[in-house]
Each structure stands twice: as C-alpha cells, then as structure tokens.
Design goal:
The chain is an alpha/beta fold. It is built from 5 helices and 8 strands, in the order ααβαββαββαβββ. The radius of gyration is 28 Å and the shape is elongated.
C-alpha cells in the first residue's frame, strides 16, 4: 500500500525488482542456449543418421552390384554366341536380340552407377586442371546427345586460365551427369548455359562436426561453375530429396537416382560445394559448383599483388 511506503522500503522494493529482472534475463538466456543446443543436437543426430544410412546403402549397393555382375556377364556371352552362330536370323529374332542387348546395357549401366557410388574415397587422383579445357572436353562428349534432343549448349567461360586441382575423369563424370539431366528434363528441346568465373567463397552451410584442415573457408578464392537450363525446374516438395541416393522422378528404366548423389559426393571429395536451385525470374534449374582455385605464378590474374578483383559467391544465391 502506498500509505505504508517509506524511503527505506521503497529502495528495498526497487533492489528486489532489479534482482528479479536480472534473474529473469539470465533465465531467458539459459533458455535460448538450451533451445540452440537442442537444435544443434538434433542436427548432429540427423547428420549421423544420414551418414549411417549412406554407409548402409553403399555396402548394399556394392553387394548387389557384385552379385548381379556375374549373371549379367553370362547373359552377355549368350547374346554374343547367338549373334555369332545364328546366321539366318529373321526380323523377329534380330529385334529380340537388340532388345536383349539394350536390357543388358541398361542393367550394366545401373551396376556401374552403384559401384561408383559405393567406391572408396582413396580413388581420387588430384592433378592441375584448367576448368575451361574441362568444359570444352565435356561439351565435345555430349554434343551428339544434345543435337539428337534438339538442345543447344552455350559456354560463357572466364577469360583467363582458371585452374583447380582435381580428378579429371571424376569431374568429367560430374559435368556429364548434370548436362544429361538437363537434356532429359527438356523434353521438347531447349538451351543449356555453362558459365565459369572466379569468386570468393561467402558464408555457407557447414557440418559443425567437421574438423578437416584442408576444407574451404570463407574468403577462399574459388572457381565457380554454373550449369543452367530452361526446363521445368525443381518442384518445391522435391528440393530436399534431389541428392538422396536412388531417388528419381524419371520413368522406370530411364534413371537410377544415383547421378546427383554420386556427383555431389565427388565434389565433396574435392573439398568443394554443389547446390541445385531454380533460376530466379525464369524457368529452369541451375547447378552451381564451387571448387578451390589453384593459382600459380603463371595464371595469377592482374591486380594488386597478384590478387584478382573477385565477387562474393554464397550458397544461397539463386540467380545463375
């Protein structure tokens, strides 16, 4: 009651109120820290569960591939024998042999993808690679398939020699997988654009439990490769599943669902980053790959102290 207040009691009330407020503020901080810790634990648990799932899938894929490979080789030998000894083949026999060969080739392709997915990390052989030369080589490989599907490819390459360290065969596999996915997504034909440029690695999502010394960090000079198309893009409900092994939206027999999973794993083996986003302001998807640039004295760009003028590239940009 106000009539019972005196200076001493008023001061004690103020001190008690401030004390309660400090305790309340401290409790709120502890609550926020607890919530953050809970989220981090859930994320760590999710990473562990995903790692365990991938490990199981790898072992299963390797076992299935090896078990199927031997019977498939026997079928292939039978087909070769029939072709060699059946001289007077009618049209039905010939078409049956062709269909059987296509089925064997498709099964062999699936086994090849499964073995690639389950292969150990020690098979990566690093060597200096010019990104522009790599893109030009890949375009020569996919030229016939693009022409057959009425798809044009345009390359907008960096002016200078953009060098990285990587496994040439595996990186070719990544780019071919991505381009072929774009070709298959554009049923009525379309256009694919490939861009290479220099950049600086910006803020990006990381596995907080990772403790590797040779990973890329914010501010590192990177080679950026963007492959975009004008196809239908990626539905919102599928964005979180595109890198899942054996997940595919293609009809049965046309895809294994391992292309993007294998490609992402190869990029991670190179300590790089790969993401797939929808192109902003237009239809189609954009695959963005960032690999650590390998600058030598001969390929350092002009600038102050040999440092280029670079743009900041983050994993959340959506404009190709």
């Amino acid at each position: 009651p106000k009539e019972s207040l005196n200076p001493d009691l008023l001061m004690r009330c103020a001190i008690y109120a401030l004390g309660r407020q400090r305790y309340r503020a401290g409790l709120e901080k502890l609550t926020q820290r607890l919530k953050q810790t809970t989220l981090e634990l859930r994320a760590a648990h999710s990473h562990l569960a995903q790692a365990e799932k991938l490990d199981s899938i790898c072992r299963l894929a390797a076992g299935v591939a090896h078990e199927v490979k031997n019977p498939l080789a026997t079928i292939q030998m039978g087909l070769d024998y029939l072709r060699a000894h059946c001289v007077n083949r009618d049209e039905n026999t010939e078409s049956t042999l062709v269909l059987m060969q296509e089925a064997v080739d498709r099964a062999d392709s699936v086994i090849h993808d499964m073995l690639n997915f389950s292969r150990s990390d020690e098979s990566v052989k690093m060597e200096p690679i010019c990104i522009n030369d790599l893109v030009a080589c890949v375009l020569r490989i996919v030229k016939h398939e693009c022409h057959r599907n009425h798809v044009t490819c345009e390359a907008l390459l960096a002016d200078d020699g953009l060098m990285i360290s990587g496994d040439l065969n595996k990186l070719e596999q990544v780019f071919i997988n991505i381009i072929m996915n774009s070709v298959q997504a554009m049923k009525a034909g379309g256009k694919i654009e490939i861009r290479t440029k220099r950049g600086l690695l910006g803020e990006t999502k990381r596995d907080e439990g990772l403790r590797e010394m040779n990973r890329m960090r914010m501010g590192d000079e990177v080679a950026v490769i963007e492959i975009s198309d004008n196809g239908p893009g990626i539905p919102d409900e599928l964005k979180n599943r595109i890198f899942e092994p054996f997940f595919t939206t293609k009809p049965t027999g046309e895809g294994t669902g391992l292309g993007l999973a294998v490609s992402k794993r190869i990029i991670e083996l190179h300590r790089g980053q790969m993401e797939v986003v929808n192109s902003e302001g237009s239809t189609g998807a954009c695959v963005r790959i960032q690999l650590q640039a390998n600058f030598s004295d001969k390929n350092k760009p002009n600038g102050t102290n040999g440092k280029p003028s670079l743009e900041l590239v983050t994993a959340t940009n959506q404009t190709p």
